[in-house]
Protein 1
Amino acid sequence: MTNLEIAELLRKVAAAYLVLNENRFRIIAYERAADSVEHLTSEVKDMWDDGKLEDIPGVGGGIASQLNELFRTGKSKHWNEVLSQVPQAIFPLLLVPGLGPKKAYTLVTELKLKDANTVIPDLEKAAKAGKIAPMEGFGDKSQSVILDSIAIYKRGQIKENRMPLPYADEIARELIAHLKKVPGVIRVDALGSLRRQVSTIGDIDIAVATDKPEPVISQFVKFSHQKIVDQGGSGATLLLSNGRQADLRVQSQKAYGAMLQYFTGSKNHNIRLRELALTKGMSLSEHGIKSVRTGKLTKYATEEAFYKAIGLSYISPELREDRGEIEASRNGTLPKPIMLDDMKGDLHVHSSYDLEPSHDLGKNSVAELMTKASDLGYAYLGFSDHNPGITNHSKEKIIDIMKRRREKYEQLYTSWKNSVQKRTRLAEDSKSRRAQYFLMCEVDILPDGKLALPDEALEYVDAVIVSVHSSFTQPKAQTTERLVRALTSHPKVRILGHPTGRLLGSREGIDADWKEVFTVAKAHDIALEINAYPERLDLPDTLVYDAVKMGIRLCIDTDAHAVEHMDLMRYGISVARRGWASAHDIVNTLEYNEFYKWLARKS
DNA sequence: GCCGTTTTCGGCCCGACTGTTTTCAGTCG
């Protein structure tokens, strides 16, 4: 069962409990657990394997024991029993915007809609026949709203899948530019999961600081949309033309710090924070902090002041996931998250040099990539082209290709260096801005764990990145053994590339015992890659968190296949920050000499 | 059902908006 399926099941149980008028805190507990599971980046099943279900925020003994039964036997008797007490037809209706468990229940019972498979068209028919308006608690307006919502639902225009972070960035940029045109706008920020830099984004959340809300809100609802979901004096919600939802909140500049904090979330972080504040007699909201005793509201212009008022040091948005950051802030043990400026090199770029690989070549030349590395202020660049294909080359041929490659790269680098020197002969700092290179190779880990490059060929590289590019669905034990074998196969193996092999939205990662793989990586001083390529963002942040806790080295690479991809480093930084990584956890923050020592195992 | 620097019992985040209502329930984030 995937996390999404588990979250859906927990939500169904919560909905059933709501219909059954069960204790409201039990319902909230299920919803909180569902949220938590949905946003988890490691698989619940893996956590069950490790006996760590109760490490999931919001999952305690009760839910954990049902999950245990679910994984063991394929079902939970207790949850099935709960679900069977309500009409099954209510569940599809929950996907229609504006319909929750109570309304859905009233509709299916009063209108006698029994078939879960046809309940949505059946409800549409009833609405068109005017049968909803006379019902108690409904009216003409709600009848037509239901019809509109069903129409949107049927067009399939509500995107349920989350999108990779960079795509959401693009939409947010357009929205921000649109809002900045309004006079009186002091600040516009993308908040929510975007500001927390989560790898995949559902809705786009935007906040505006202004003393004149009305023109901002009316400009917002002019942005290309298919529906205004709601609109009020402090914000609005749109269903955009592309099927994504966008939320706007406006706040005065004086109280903007509280708004930033509230609207950045995560939800569970905010709940935890508000619970803590209550113990100190403070009630938190997007308007500021209210004294429970006197009811007096204090406003905060900055988040730093807001956190300070609760007795906490500032917590970076990427850390706000209820993973212990509030306690760490209190104890002064928060990490100092890595920054883009800390990076001294990129170890995983593909050039257009053709070594007859089994996978794709890069688009740009060695010179173009070196120039880009220098422009980015890097001290070094690692060329990690894919190994030559093994099905169409003999072993001797592969060794020959790798040998010639070494010679050719040396020529290409020297001629680039000379041309740079010629152009900048007069510039004082020209030498310090010239990046150096490492000749590496990205070597396939074959299904049995052997490397797709003979040992003799490894003589012609400084180091290799090993990566899985095939057989993604092997059983867990086999995959684990495969990775361990690859990591321990040769001293020049220094980096495990995009470790899980996931592709966001299209491919699950491989299933491995990560704790065991990490233990081997640590013992052999092999760095785990955080691949910044937008569809990868791999290692996932939760595994980064585990790796950092274990004291394993990481490296952040772009896997660039073109010069412009080298700008994507910042997304890898986001993943690292979300995993509580500091500069000292990341091997390619080392200066050239130190890094060279690490790469060549001379330290 | 979860959870703990006042607690293993007794609390449980906070507010906006909408529609159908004369004070509130439902839904959402």
Protein 2
Amino acid sequence: MKYIDKLRNSGLRPTKQRLQICKILFDVEKTFHFTINELDQKIKKQIGNKISLATIYNTVHAFEKKGYLKQIPINSNQAYFDTNVTDHHHFYDLKDEKLIDLENSDVGPINILKKINGKKIKSVEVLVKLED
Amino acid sequence: MKYIDKLRNSGLRPTKQRLQICKILFDVEKTFHFTINELDQKIKKQIGNKISLATIYNTVHAFEKKGYLKQIPINSNQAYFDTNVTDHHHFYDLKDEKLIDLENSDVGPINILKKINGKKIKSVEVLVKLED
DNA sequence: CACCTTTTTAGAATCATTATAAAGTAGATC
DNA sequence: GATCTACTTTATAATGATTCTAAAAAGGTG
Ligand SMILES: [Mn+2]
Ligand SMILES: [Mn+2]
Ligand SMILES: [Zn+2]
Ligand SMILES: [Zn+2]
């Protein structure tokens, strides 16, 4: 009951819905990127039942807040999430509208020389747009 | 009649509305970042009259397509545009929800070591999120 | 001016996301 | 195990940015 503990330790009750979403998001070998609608589809397909969209939004946001998911800024149409929460970067294939991971080691160190008074850096993300 | 020519050369008729928007966007010393609503406010305030939101969207998208504006991916809430169309990067102040330019020279060369088969790189953008 | 095309516009439609509020559930207590 | 309470889920409505529509207005050309 790996996810039950994970949720409890985060102060989130391990409900049936949250456990199902955990299974889909984290019980796979590879991390992946998804939109809320894609997750909704995946739940219907893999679990069989449906989870209310409101619950899916709530859960994804709760997981994001706890650091189990990351949101990737791509465009203003819809939110993209990532189950890979390590520091890393992305390709974005403009034609397929798909994200591809770009590990830190594939980019090399990024040195931000400019400083902003009174602010500190929370994250540094590179987005590489791809075309044919 | 600098903007009349600019528009004509782009195959866009120099209408009153487009010229007014040009004036606001390009007739200033410094480039800046804006959302559609901020632009709408600015038009009302600086020009006095109002331009239909549909026209503002149309014009901004037309200018983006022509390369006179760039869209900056920040989050999925609303689109941010930039009158600075040179290659550059951004700070995003999470508290103030404001963009700050980060010139290429403030970041240093970014070497993308990973290649994706059949795709070529269109742009490389760094987003540095700031917190207090 | 007459004609044709592009553009503007108000308003409706769309779509992702968030809010609401009622019903259900988990976990604690007895 | 029944009871209680806070948390969660859910259907549904509301919101807000963006896009669509279709009719009116304006630009450009001869
Ligand atoms: Mn969010
Ligand atoms: Mn657009
Ligand atoms: Zn990723
Ligand atoms: Zn900028």
